[in-house]
Amino acid sequence: xxxxxxxxxxKINAFFENTRLLQEEMQIIPLLYGxxxxxxxxxxxxxxxxxxxxxxGKFLSEQWRAxxxxxxxxxxxxxxxxxxxxxxxxxxxxxxxxxxxESFAGIAMTDxxxxxxxxxxxxLLTLEQYLKVYTASSKDGYRMNVKEKKDQExxxxxxxxxxxxxxxxxxxxxxxxxCDLVRGxxxxxxxxxxxxxxxxxxxxxxxxxxxRDHRKPNYGGYFEATAGGSALKGEDALTCAKRExxxxxxxxxxxxxxxxxxxxxxxxxxxxxxxxxxxxxAVTLREGETVSYKWISEADFIAFVNSDSMIxxxxxxxxxxxxxxxxxxxxxxxxA
Length: 336
Hints:
Layout: H1 2-26, E1 31-33, H2 34-42, E2 51-55, H3 64-73, E3 77-80, E4 85-88, E5 91-97, H4 100-105, E6 113-117, E7 120-124, H5 127-138, H6 141-146, H7 148-163, E8 166-170, E9 176-182, E10 193-202, E11 207-212, E12 223-224, E13 227-230, H8 237-249, E14 255-264, E15 267-276, E16 290-296, H9 298-305, H10 312-324
Helix pairs in contact: 5-7
């Protein structure tokens, strides 16, 4: 197990080294694909053979010579021109066209999250998107003959992870407890799970409110500011905040500032302010979660937090920040 994890870490480090090179030399934001991408997402070893990377197709066609020359200048050796596969330090890097994901598995490039880690930006599929990929792969003629069993194993693995959301367990001081929690199961006394909440403010000063689906059992139809959810296994608070914000609003850019941390019952809350210049008309909704959104001015946001329109538990989470900003009027009474 130690050797598997060591090789996994080596390949992940090699991917980030390659990613920084692609960005600096060609302004490419690559997608970490295949088994290694699924390993990175789930933090489980799947014995990835090589590193599969998706990039814009132009670098494998009209700009192929420049792309190849750039990699070779940096120590990568082309070993298969047809598959666009290079080798460096015993690790194989195979490149394919990012745009083909849409025709192959119905995944548009605009629907793929962009993450930041190890001083680089990269794209990564969600579990739902990976399920689409391996389902499509299992129906592909070549893979049905060669890798049908492995594809089905991946499908079963993804479905099991989607059915049981796994969290890291924490101690009250925020350190990892060294065990897992499963969503929906009781959390043992003395253990906590991590939740990130994000308040979004535009660079022009407006705040973003998302309207909850009317069918939700708690606060259905209410507007909330703005997004949030539980950290998955392997995520820190900031990574969770960025993922939740992307999943619930489509926003992928912004400056995140931690404005509060507190513990309540069995949950550690990390509250972030995200200041973004995101296109106000490009906010997305999430089926079953949100039905509408609106940007409101600072004055209207102050009115919102001082009314009974704001969800009371969210008010209490943001209260120190709201007081600091001078947004609480009339003595700071909590809304009913």
